TrEMBL record:
This is SCP domain-containing protein. It comes from Teladorsagia circumcincta (Brown stomach worm).
Length: 66
């Protein structure tokens, strides 16, 4: 789960034993803060920063089109 303010996300998966898998994700800036909301309230893409657009999955995406 990533927080509303998450800008960077990286995950990895590893098989340690024959039938055990481990997954770990790191994200920044950090989250999991007591009494803070995971998501911002509002319509999808209603708060995209300048230089971003609303993609087909209703997420803000950096505008890298020139």
């Amino acid at each position: 789960m990533a927080w509303a303010t998450t800008k960077y996300l990286g995950c990895a998966v590893s098989q340690n034993c024959a039938d055990m898998w481990y997954a770990v994700c790191h994200y920044s800036p950090g989250g999991n803060i007591v009494n803070r909301r995971v998501y911002e309230i509002g319509n999808p893409c209603s708060n995209c920063p300048v230089g971003y657009f609303c993609d087909s999955t209703l997420l803000c995406e950096a505008n890298t089109r020139f």
